[in-house]
Design brief:
The chain is α/β, with parallel strands linked by helices and 610 residues long. Helix content is 63%, strand content 10%.
């Protein structure tokens, strides 16, 4: 049993956008946890019954020891008693010890399903909620810190339940039983000494622990900072290498570790003060109890067995009393960690389904933007009074300089954000009035930066339609013209693509993205700068696949390179969130406006330099 060591805990982290501290009380956090446990109420009650049985058996052990010692003090010549009585008491002693262990194991066995079930349900609820939060939240969050919040919160469920049910409640039961025996069997002074020691011990533990929480919190925050810095540096491994900054990154990480080390030493110093004070209180109470019992034996008011019983009671109380400080620290930290995870659950969704929202009808895939205004921040509008239509089965392209709002249109169509004014409709239905899931089910996208899961090629293509067969995956790969490449790799479709797909080239990743969208087979397709990261040769090679993916689908092409949009039914020229020109490629060239100027400039850039 851990006595003087720090309770296992984890650093407290504040995600982006969250207040540094939460004012919710520990009782409020416990109330949040209770419904998850009450789902297993019969198991909870059974576990409590087994726990009471274990403590009754545990308290019975010192009583048997007293009787055993007193039985050994019988007069000489009583041979039968000498042989029978101690043997019976010894057997009873063994049975009580065995009963304590059996009841404890039964309690663990019965309650394990409740503990693991509650932890699983909370973790899954948080995971689903995080996926339901807006893109804005995920752009601001720190991945390393947030994953620690979830990990700590899950561990906090286990710690809180085990410490409460397996330590606090049993200790209270055992104290009550022991005080009852002492009060009934002997004089009240034994009870008062025990109670006084308990009150002083708990008061000292709570006061010092609350005082040293500031040091522990500082240590936790610095640990999270070091963790976030390390994760951020490793995620940007290539950038670190490009600028030869390994030593610089190691220095930044070491500075974080040094600040953590100083805080950890201060935290350990205050912990040692707490443990030393606890031992002084316990030692004084033990001496007082044994002095009183010894005096009772000398005066003839107590037997030698009574002295042994009091000593055994004190030893049994010493363990939970001594462990109480660790339990308190553990519970406080678990409550903090659990509350942090509940804070993630309470993070408001920026984009919600309207009450009674129904799925998108899906009969017509015509897309309309009607007088759309949008701004990420009120002071910086992105789209201004934007209106256009993509008829079902047609292709509309949007071109313009960086920062003009092209990719924002795709995010709005996907409903990652809601427009501040105007409407976006699919088949005449406002996407704010139908379910988000049905809107996203109707749209496929080949993004500018294709990010793949660190899994097999088959998994990443099948992600477009989970549950698709290998034959369907291969058909989509053939349509995207990547099947031959996959077939020639040693492991074929079981080839791992690496984190974020880094083992594949840009062109290969784009073809996987196209295959994934083809497998999904949505009525609406978005190409968001789908070839901007590729060289000219790869761009031309990918164009055929993009045309195949867009065939007979309502298509929005967001492009920087004008050569990729010449076949669009309509081209919109966007500048500072406003459509400044619109028409076919030929019409826009003939008008000699902004589009024609961009076309000439890109032609000049494409010409070889002699």
């Amino acid at each position: 049993m851990r006595r003087s060591g720090e309770a296992i805990s984890s650093p407290h982290h504040v995600s982006a956008g969250e207040p540094a501290r939460n004012d919710r009380s520990d009782w409020a956090t416990l109330r949040r946890l209770f419904p998850y446990l009450w789902q297993y109420k019969w198991r909870v009650l059974a576990a409590l019954a087994f726990m009471v049985g274990a403590k009754v058996a545990n308290v019975g052990v010192p009583v048997l020891l007293k009787n055993l010692v007193d039985a050994m003090s019988i007069k000489p010549g009583s041979a039968a008693s000498l042989l029978v009585v101690p043997v019976g008491l010894l057997l009873a002693y063994g049975l009580l010890r065995l009963s304590t262990s059996i009841f404890n194991e039964l309690r663990e066995l019965v309650f394990a399903k409740a503990t693991e079930g509650a932890a699983r349900r909370i973790s899954l609820e948080v995971f689903r909620h995080l996926h339901a939060l807006s893109l804005r939240f995920h752009l601001e969050r720190q991945t390393g810190g947030m994953t620690r919040d979830i990990e700590r919160g899950t561990r906090g469920v286990h710690s809180l339940i085990s410490m409460s049910l397996y330590s606090i409640v049993p200790t209270i039961i055992e104290l009550t039983l022991v005080l009852t025996v002492l009060g009934v069997k002997f004089d009240a002074l034994f009870v008062w000494i025990t109670l006084a020691a308990l009150v002083v011990y708990i008061s000292f533990t709570v006061t010092v622990t609350e005082w040293r929480t500031q040091f522990r919190r500082t240590m936790n925050e610095l640990d999270t900072m070091a963790q976030s810095r390390a994760v951020d540096s490793l995620l940007n491994y290539e950038t670190v290498k490009y600028f030869n900054n390994e030593d610089f990154e190691a220095g930044r990480y070491d500075a974080s570790l040094e600040r953590y080390r100083r805080a950890a030493v201060k935290s350990q110093t205050t912990l040692s003060m707490l443990n030393a004070g606890q031992q002084v209180i316990i030692a004084i109470s033990l001496v007082a109890m044994l002095f009183r019992a010894t005096q009772g034996v000398v005066d003839g008011r107590m037997t030698l067995g009574d002295l042994v019983m009091v000593n055994a009671f004190m030893i049994q109380l010493y363990i939970p009393l001594n462990f109480l400080g660790v339990i308190y620290r553990e519970i406080k930290q678990s409550l903090t960690d659990l509350d942090k995870m509940f804070l993630l659950l309470e993070k408001e969704r920026e984009v919600r389904d309207a009450p009674g929202a129904r799925p998108l009808a899906g009969m017509d895939s015509t897309v309309r933007f009607e007088n759309v205004h949008f701004a990420y921040e009120p002071a910086r509008p992105i789209l201004k009074n934007l209106s256009f239509e993509i008829p079902a089965g047609k292709t509309v392209a949007v071109v313009g300089p960086s920062g003009s709002g092209k990719s924002t249109m795709a995010r709005l169509l996907y409903r990652f954000y809601d427009v501040q004014q105007g409407h976006i409709t699919i088949g005449g239905e406002d996407i704010r009035k139908v379910t988000q899931s049905s809107v996203r089910q109707a749209i496929g996208i080949v993004p500018q930066d294709t990010v793949l899961f660190n899994d097999t090629i088959e998994f990443n293509i099948a992600y477009g339609r989970p549950g698709a067969s290998r034959a369907e995956v291969e058909e989509a790969a053939r349509a995207a013209r990547i099947h031959d490449f996959i077939a020639h790799t040693p492991k074929g479709y079981d080839t791992m693509v690496g984190e974020r797909g880094l083992k594949l080239s840009g062109g290969e990743k784009q073809r996987v993205a196209i295959a994934r969208t083809l497998l999904k087979n949505p009525p609406i397709v978005i190409f968001d700068e789908a070839t901007s990261a590729l060289d000219s040769a790869n761009e031309r090679a990918i164009q055929a696949e993009l045309k195949s993916a867009a065939r007979n689908k309502t298509t929005l092409v967001i492009a920087h390179r004008l050569s990729t949009v010449v076949d669009a039914h309509e081209i919109l020229v966007l500048e500072s969130g406003v459509i400044v020109e619109r028409g076919t490629h030929a019409e826009l060239l003939a008008s000699q406006g902004k589009y024609a100027q961009m076309w000439r400039l890109q032609k000049l850039e494409a010409e070889p330099v002699l």
